[in-house]
Write a structure and sequence with these properties.
With about 450 residues, the protein is an alpha/beta fold. The chain contains 14 helices and 11 strands. The strands form 2 sheets. It has a 7-stranded mixed sheet, with helices on both faces. A 4-stranded antiparallel sheet has the order 8-9-11-10. The termini are far apart. Bound molecules: pyridoxal-5'-phosphate (PLP). The site of pyridoxal-5'-phosphate (PLP) has 14 residues, from helix 5.
């Protein structure tokens, strides 16, 4: 008997309601049909899939999720899931410690990076009422959208040739007094560029701005930022300890099933902004609990159980979760080195994490953006449609503002230039990175 069944059997026997009872054959047929329907997916589990930020969760996460979901605790309130609420606190404390946040900081899991960022921006709007939120041109579109939801003015800051926020341009803005919060992206969605957070926090300290770090994608790379073989610039990562809030998505590089984001606030006093009265949900505890420090109500306790169990097996250290991150980082470095050696390709941005971007453009050639885009699309189609050995990568519509810096030889006859993009987030990509780039080069001619 498993542990949950044993726990259940300790209660007085009762007749389970016939409600919802389904004959075995019908249940089996539905599950069989589902199995077929689910094949209508890209092979996210396979290294041939290197397109978007998707891979299956760790088996321990899946097992823990299924185990907890059988009880179905709700981490909205302590009454809904005392055990999983405790697991959430423990897992969040480990994430906070990874960023060198103080032990008394505030944080919780969310259903996504989008919601986690919304909460951080909402707190920013309460701390700096009416002030604008600044983020880079390459920040995730959620920041613009959530500022519009919150009714906050925005300031969009240009990026440098590596896709990072241009801090000098931020510093010299004539409307800088409007700004209340700066969002630094720790790994942009398109290219994995890391904003110079260390410079941003320094400037923000002088100007009295809040700083929010969006590490939805890149946050876990903090673990390996100081490892020499990762060849990363450590300074922006060390500065996370000084950010006012941080978002990281365990459902990206934390090996979790979807439905697991995380937001942290360095100063627990912002918890006061969440204060509200709920006359019906909280009646067993006087402690401040998760439902009182979160904008969302019902949340799967199973997510907390899955993350907690994963971190028991793969702690947030270089030898734990860091091993996979080092492998995917090595894959991006290998891909970049390979592309530099191939005359038919021009890397767009030297990878800062594990995302590789490249243009089907002969080095130094003065091709039009429309021609490069057509070659990119043709390469993408050929790789995807390959009969015996498909390769799934992505197309990035590089905006002219960044593209004219990153690819100065391109003739900009349009505002965007399509280039190839590949998210090398599986450890297996380390061995295959050069071959993936070779395939891109062959498909691009
Ligand atoms: C940098 C960044 N921020 C925010 C998000 C949104 O996160 P989610 O898809 O979990 O809502 C993403 C998603 O890719 C991201 O890359």
């Amino acid at each position: 008997m498993d542990a949950i069944a044993e726990w259940e059997s300790g209660w007085a026997a009762f007749d389970r309601s016939a409600d919802g009872e389904v004959p075995f054959e019908r249940a089996a047929a539905a599950i069989d049909e589902l199995g077929i329907r689910l094949r209508d997916n890209y092979p996210y589990f396979h290294p041939a899939y290197a397109g978007q930020m998707i891979k299956p969760p760790h088996p321990v996460a899946l097992a823990a999720y299924a185990m907890a979901a059988r009880i179905n605790p709700n981490n909205h309130a302590l009454d809904g899931g005392p055990a999983t609420a405790a697991l959430e606190r423990e897992a969040v404390a480990q994430i906070a410690s990874m960023f060198d946040y103080p032990v008394d900081c505030l944080g919780h899991l969310t259903s996504s990076g989008t919601i986690a960022n919304l909460e951080a921006l909402w707190i920013a709007s309460r701390v700096r009422p009416g002030a604008a939120v600044a983020f880079s041109e390459e920040a995730h579109y959620t920041h613009g959208r959530m500022c519009s939801v919150l009714g906050l003015p925005t300031v969009v800051v240009p990026v440098d040739a590596r896709g990072r926020m241009d801090v000098a341009r931020l510093a010299s803005r004539t409307d800088k007094d409007r700004i209340g919060t700066v969002v630094a992206t720790m790994g942009t969605t398109a290219s994995g560029a890391v904003d110079p957070l260390h410079e941003i926090v320094e400037l923000a300290a002088m100007r009295g701005w809040r700083v929010h770090a969006d590490g939805a994608y890149g946050g876990f790379f903090r673990i390996i930022a100081q490892a020499s073989e990762a060849r990363m610039e450590a300074a922006p990562w060390l500065a996370l300890a000084d950010a006012d809030s941080i978002v990281v998505d365990p459902h990206k590089h934390g090996l979790q099933p979807y439905g697991c984001g995380c937001v942290l606030f360095r100063d627990a006093a912002v918890g006061a902004y969440y204060k509200h009265d709920s006359p019906y949900t909280y009646f067993t505890s006087k402690d401040l609990h998760l439902g009182e420090i979160s904008l969302e109500c019902s949340r799967a306790g199973a997510s907390a159980a899955a993350l907690w169990a994963t971190l028991r097996c793969l702690p947030l250290t270089a030898a734990g979760l860091g091993r996979g991150l080092l492998a995917s980082r090595a894959a991006a470095l290998a891909a970049f080195d390979r592309a530099c050696a191939l005359p038919a390709l021009t890397p767009v941005i030297e990878p800062a994490l594990d995302i590789f971007t490249v243009a089907p453009l002969a080095r130094g050639a003065r091709d039009r953006a429309s021609d490069v885009s057509a070659r990119t699309q043709a390469a993408f189609d050929a790789l995807t449609a390959h009969e015996s050995d498909p390769l799934y990568v992505a197309v990035w519509r590089l905006p002219r503002s960044l593209g004219s810096l990153a690819l100065p030889d391109v003739v900009w006859d349009r505002e965007e230039c399509a280039v190839l993009r590949s998210v090398l987030m599986k450890p297996e990509h380390r061995e295959r990175a050069a071959a993936i780039v070779d395939r891109m080069a062959t498909a691009a001619v």
